[in-house]
Amino acid sequence: MGNVIVAQSGGPTVAINASLAGVIEGALAHHYDRIYGSINGIQGIIEDNILDISGLLDSNPNFLSVLKTSPAMYLGSCRYKLPNLDSNNQVYSTLFSQFEKYNIDAFFYIGGNDSMDTVEKLSAYAKEINSPIRFVGVPKTIDNDLCVTDHTPGFGSAAKYIATTTMEVIYDARIYKAKSVTIIEVMGRDAGWLTAATALARNEYCPGPDLIYLPETPFDKDEFIDSLKAILENKNNVVVAVSEGIRDAKGQYISATSTAADGFGHAQLSGAGKTLEYLVKERLGVKVRSIEVNVLQRAAAHLSSLTDLEESVNVGKKAVEFAADGQTGIMTIMTRISNSPYEIEYSFARIGEIANEAKPVPRQWINEKGDWVTEDMISYLRPLIMGEPKLNFDNGLPVYAMR
Amino acid sequence: MGNVIVAQSGGPTVAINASLAGVIEGALAHHYDRIYGSINGIQGIIEDNILDISGLLDSNPNFLSVLKTSPAMYLGSCRYKLPNLDSNNQVYSTLFSQFEKYNIDAFFYIGGNDSMDTVEKLSAYAKEINSPIRFVGVPKTIDNDLCVTDHTPGFGSAAKYIATTTMEVIYDARIYKAKSVTIIEVMGRDAGWLTAATALARNEYCPGPDLIYLPETPFDKDEFIDSLKAILENKNNVVVAVSEGIRDAKGQYISATSTAADGFGHAQLSGAGKTLEYLVKERLGVKVRSIEVNVLQRAAAHLSSLTDLEESVNVGKKAVEFAADGQTGIMTIMTRISNSPYEIEYSFARIGEIANEAKPVPRQWINEKGDWVTEDMISYLRPLIMGEPKLNFDNGLPVYAMR
Q1: Residue numbers in B near A163 (CB within 8 A)
Q2: Structural domains in chain A?
């Protein structure tokens, strides 16, 4: 056998290193000679910034187990988009001479939509020049918006973190008797999957958010204020979850159309949460605050979903299996067999079906009024957040792997 | 024996319910007849909104163990300040007739500075009317700024959360090669204890923040920009931790004096982190973002310090012991015997020494330049974040107790 090379790209999730570990374990199982890592995505191959992962494994026997629960991206990332094949083939010949130099049989790219675009272009170029190198994508994104696959590695952990912090924010909001509104802004420019996960915070010991707004349905400020007024009549502390990408009926981002922001002339400075905070202050005059969960939702490896981490490892392993079987231009996908008991199947899809497409929340999984999600959504989400990995702590802090 | 009543006040910490559990366990151990809880601090006594905790314990045997790891305040909170004794004694006679009605021997108030002020006033009034009721304070605050005690319950867990999330933010910041600055804003208007805890994120697998600014030393914008420039020459991703309360040499809050905010004429809208984000963008033109850790630092019960929780329970238990011994007008305190092995002693101090005073970070625990902390600070902080409690998860989420 020859060698394999793996790289990571796009934004972080807490499970993308688990997929890296999965690719490594898969490559070991399939007896590839050496395993290389490209630093900062595909840029590392172009710039010859290559890590000898096989050497690393020899010198550090605990490496894989720590890697599986480490946040962000061990190999670093990039936002590098390959040019179209016809326009400029220089970078392609550079890449393929590098593959030759390192005797690469298969390249694995762990990433989101843009990374899948790269996998597709490389496999197409390989076909053109009759190269036998296989190119396989390993999905990841906290946004859960990749097509064809039931869900994406990294999403379950982010959903678990979001649901937990939503609970904790609700506990925090309830301590005072004075009327108050708390707005939680969750990542998701175009898809509301992660914001929908705040619904999991409704259980026997937590009322959950009162209102949930996703980008998939139009947001109406007057209706929002009316809903708040109605809820505030019956309870003191209202908690609202919104996607950063909520839009009005004309498709304009709420974050860019706020009254308050208009006043400054610097609309881009306010997120959706801040914008609604100003709106509530102005219209209702109650105590209001907004909380932007920020990068923690993609970086909080101290609270991840064991289901997500295990699947992320498997998705990486499977990618190697498919490559060893001769597949190229594909991505590992998961298909759900059942919710209860939760069961999924791993297979692959042609990259062409996936790259540059996004999967929104289906309209029928949002309630009619567009301010909560349905039971189908809850049943879909629940299995993805189940289980907690055993984390190692040292000196009071979780142990992570940094290059 | 008669009965006891306990209440919680001020802002939440993740350990304040552990102290409530401690008071309850102490009251059981000292064979008080019944244990009552006042809802929303002292307001519950005034409004006769009283919870029968003894009854709760009978019906729910797991209550105390879940309570110990539950966030926020099980009994609710208030921001109620008692009037001075001479000015208006109506509320005092209301309170004491309530104490009589419930046959109260001792009142325990878990809270910060304001709550200790209440304990002091009630014990003074009791003395005036020759009431035998004991009033004992149980400290809590994530700010760690109470005098006399070595540290405050709740601080260790917040410090652990801050150190962990700082690590995770640093991991997140390092994935791209492009130069970037990340600013983490930590709670602490007047004292920098919690921001200092970001220093714990420097270890063998994490470089830690590059700069740390506390309210205790004057912040100079030009020096800050010069420091960033120097660091950016040698590394790509700079991470800065700032207290929300950093001030310039004239004592003006940075959050209120920003160039950017001046431009809007709405200075109050920008926190310290946002203000510095604008400053860096303007002066250095590199990619910059600010992260406000927000309420999670006081509410994230999913990541607490076992040392802190155990001490919080003990501080509550000791308060009951002291009251049973006849003490009143006091607060339980902790004295540190040694850092390594970590050892503390519980005792009490007169409330007069504590209430309405704040404890800043000593200047000698901050480096000369005012942009990092010393080894003494690290040695002080480290033991407080040690250990992780066993959390129960159900359906993928931590189990908490809500009233």
Answers
A1: 396-397
A2: 3-154+301-356+388-398 (3.40.50.450), 157-299 (3.40.50.460)
